[in-house]
TrEMBL record:
<feature type="domain" description="ABC transporter">
    <location>
        <begin position="33"/>
        <end position="274"/>
    </location>
</feature>
<keyword id="KW-0813">Transport</keyword>
<dbReference type="InterPro" id="IPR003593">
    <property type="entry name" value="AAA+_ATPase"/>
</dbReference>
<dbReference type="GO" id="GO:0016887">
    <property type="term" value="F:ATP hydrolysis activity"/>
</dbReference>
<protein>
    <submittedName>
        <fullName>Phosphate ABC transporter ATP-binding protein</fullName>
    </submittedName>
</protein>
<dbReference type="GO" id="GO:0005315">
    <property type="term" value="F:phosphate transmembrane transporter activity"/>
</dbReference>
<dbReference type="InterPro" id="IPR017871">
    <property type="entry name" value="ABC_transporter-like_CS"/>
</dbReference>
<dbReference type="InterPro" id="IPR027417">
    <property type="entry name" value="P-loop_NTPase"/>
</dbReference>
<dbReference type="GO" id="GO:0005524">
    <property type="term" value="F:ATP binding"/>
</dbReference>
<keyword id="KW-0067">ATP-binding</keyword>
<dbReference type="GO" id="GO:0016020">
    <property type="term" value="C:membrane"/>
</dbReference>
<keyword id="KW-0547">Nucleotide-binding</keyword>
<dbReference type="InterPro" id="IPR005670">
    <property type="entry name" value="PstB-like"/>
</dbReference>
<dbReference type="Pfam" id="PF00005">
    <property type="entry name" value="ABC_tran"/>
</dbReference>
<dbReference type="InterPro" id="IPR003439">
    <property type="entry name" value="ABC_transporter-like_ATP-bd"/>
</dbReference>
<dbReference type="GO" id="GO:0035435">
    <property type="term" value="P:phosphate ion transmembrane transport"/>
</dbReference>
Amino acid sequence: MLSMTMEKVKQATLPKEKEVREGSSLLARKQALTFEDVNIYYGTHQAVKNVSFSIPERAITALIGPSGCGKSTFLRSINRMNDTIAGARSTGVIQYDDVNLLGQEINTAALRKEIGMVFQKPNLFAKSIYQNMIHALKFHGITGKDELMYTVEECLRKAALWEEVKDRLHQSALSLSGGQQQRLCIARALALKPNILLLDEPCSALDPISNSKIEDLMIELKEEFTILIVTHNMHQASRISDQTAFFLDGILVEYSETNQLFTNPLKKETEDYITGRFG
């Protein structure tokens, strides 16, 4: 459990009026995460400033903005990955399943099981494909060979990788192509049956074909999972996401349904960024 106080999921607080357009269907959807006045610091430097909005369930939300704007820092705060950085601290509320994820009582191992993360570069172990898949499962007490194999196949299929690797599960994961390695990282995250997937620029180092496969995969996975993705690729954000949040200098400038944000942004800063005038 994430907290001793966790109870049945309730509908989270809706986004603040200033951050969502009137009549937006975002307001009608159940919220997976709600952020209230989230601030993130590295020592005395404030990287994220008073961010408040909500993320709907089973949808793709893109976080965009120029390098250094705080979007990856914000993403990493959700499953407490920033805790591993000396001097980092977060304030405010990240509400998930009636629990504030920034609370001191949070079991981070349990949290990262429910909210998985895939990084910009594949972070595989120098072990076989199979060993990479079962590592976290065994850590969480799953040891039966049949159950392990069932989960490995199920998640590799969900990651559209099973047919490519089923005959070489015991070969090194590092022998895979970059795109295959990234899909293996996604499959590994899925093995723990998370509710939410955090993706930090998962396609930035991939060729166009691999990029397309990852994008297709994300669109399929949102039927089952809530997905947040950090991306510098405006075309990618517009193609795959349902909502987009634009960050600048640690501030959430605008948050809207993706089509609205890219075709009719409310803020001049947003328009300047998506049209390439800066960033």
